[in-house]
């Protein structure tokens, strides 16, 4: 297929359906290849999966893929598989990391949100309570924490990655106290990492009572994608000014990256790309499409999805699109549960099979 066809041929429901079915079939292959472990990443076709016994921060996305499959198929066995994976993550409830939000929103919260699963609801509620206990009133947020790569500075750091997931967990039961903590998390994230032009830093450090950004605003594509998801969720829950913040951040993405697959970091244009972040933004744009200018946002999401599923990064349901640190000094595109989850969710939303605001 020529580059012109990729850009100009309209993305339609039939093409989206083919991609969805391919990803859903791929789950059985990944399950077989992973055995009793959690799939972390695979470098591509004919490569073995790197497997984790505990799941790391990616474990929730593995369960999340099965929740999406259960929603699509309506089959009880798919829902049971998702729940089995989620239960194996239970020992992460007490981990000293804000990434618990990612683990238990996508791993359990979606089970309640999408399918009303009572056991998933119980696990998600426990996760929300643990996260609330980790809230630091002096910092005004849940710190990143030392586990799962947070390191020595983790207790005084904030990350935007878990923002949307945290807001989702805190809103799941409409508990006023948790909703209040979610609002504080959102406000502190905006203060610490946001900027007037919509470019966000992916993390910040709390030093001597002040927030200092940890990286150049807007540079890391997936950090900007996490930001869009978080702001979209915040706008739906809390209204203004976050509606405006979400719109400004989406305009920054389009201005800085357009509707093609972005570089992992703008400062490294010759480095690897990160298609995963484009899938996340396609989902976020559809969540924003419920307001003014909604059809334009939906068309933009369709262009992003067309570029992804017609690229060499997607073949037979295998999405080698997550720019991932495979070694301490090496980042490369891999197939992962996170990348596949966001592509599948964005495709389901685009076809009308999933409310993008539910993710």
Number of continuous helical runs: 13
Looking at the structure, what is the overall shape?
Answer: globular
Overall pLDDT: 96
- Return the string of H and E elements: HHEEHHHHEHHEEHHHHEEEH
User: So what's the CATH class of the largest domain?
Assistant: Mainly Alpha
Protein name: Unsaturated chondroitin disaccharide hydrolase
Organism: Pseudomonas anguilliseptica
GO molecular function: hydrolase activity
Keywords: Hydrolase
Structure characterization notes:
The protein has 359 residues and is mainly alpha-helical. The chain has two domains: 179 residues, Glycosyltransferase (Alpha/alpha barrel), CATH 1.50.10; 140 residues, Glycosyltransferase (Alpha/alpha barrel), CATH 1.50.10.10. It is built from 13 helices and eight strands. Strands 3-4-5 form a three-stranded antiparallel β-sheet, covered by helices on one side. A three-stranded antiparallel β-sheet has the order 6-7-8. Strand 6 and strand 7 form a beta hairpin. Helix 3 packs antiparallel against helix 4, helix 7 packs parallel to helix 9 and helix 11 runs parallel beside helix 13. It starts with a helix and ends in an 8-residue tail after the last helix.
SSE layout:
Elements: H1 3-8, H2 13-34, E1 38-41, E2 50-52, H3 59-73, H4 76-88, H5 100-115, H6 118-133, E3 157-159, H7 163-171, H8 176-193, E4 203-207, E5 210-213, H9 221-238, H10 242-257, H11 275-288, H12 294-309, E6 314-315, E7 318-327, E8 330-335, H13 337-351
Antiparallel strand pairs: 1-2, 3-4, 4-5, 6-7, 7-8
Question: Characteristics of this structure?
Answer:
hydrolase; 13 helices; Glycosyltransferase; 8 strands; 6-hairpin_glycosidase_sf; 359 residues; mainly alpha
């Amino acid at each position: 297929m020529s580059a012109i066809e990729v850009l100009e041929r309209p993305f339609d429901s039939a093409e989206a359906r083919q991609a969805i079915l391919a990803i859903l079939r791929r789950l059985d292959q990944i399950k077989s290849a992973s055995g009793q472990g959690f799939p972390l990443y695979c470098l591509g076709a004919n490569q073995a999966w790197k497997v984790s016994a505990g799941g790391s921060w990616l474990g929730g996305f593995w369960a999340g893929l099965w929740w999406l499959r259960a929603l699509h198929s309506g089959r009880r066995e798919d829902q049971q598989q998702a729940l089995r994976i989620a239960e194996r993550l239970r020992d992460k409830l007490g981990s000293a990391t804000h990434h618990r939000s990612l683990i238990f929103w996508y791993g359990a919260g979606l089970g309640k949100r999408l399918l009303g699963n009572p056991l998933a609801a119980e696990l998600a509620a426990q996760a929300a309570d643990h996260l609330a206990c980790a809230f630091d009133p002096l910092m005004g947020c849940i710190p990143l924490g030392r586990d799962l790569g947070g390191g020595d500075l983790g207790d005084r750091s904030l990350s935007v990655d878990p923002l949307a997931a945290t807001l989702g967990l805190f809103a799941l039961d409409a508990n006023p106290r948790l909703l209040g903590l979610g609002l504080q998390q959102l406000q502190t994230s905006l203060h610490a990492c946001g900027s007037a032009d919509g470019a966000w830093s992916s993390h910040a450090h709390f030093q001597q009572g002040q927030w200092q950004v940890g990286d150049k605003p807007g540079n890391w594509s997936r950090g900007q994608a996490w930001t869009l998801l978080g702001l979209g969720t915040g706008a739906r829950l809390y209204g203004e000014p976050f509606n405006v913040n979400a719109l400004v951040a989406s305009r920054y993405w389009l201005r800085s990256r357009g509707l093609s697959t972005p570089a992992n970091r703008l400062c490294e244009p010759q480095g690897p790309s990160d298609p995963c972040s484009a899938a996340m933004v396609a989902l976020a744009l559809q969540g924003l499409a419920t307001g003014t200018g909604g059809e334009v946002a939906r068309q933009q999401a369709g262009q992003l999805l067309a570029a992804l599923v017609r690229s060499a990064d997607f073949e037979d349901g295998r999405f080698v699109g997550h720019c991932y640190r495979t070694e301490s000094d090496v980042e490369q595109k891999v197939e992962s549960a996170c990348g596949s989850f966001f592509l599948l969710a964005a495709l389901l939303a685009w076809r009308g099979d999933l409310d993008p605001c539910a993710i």
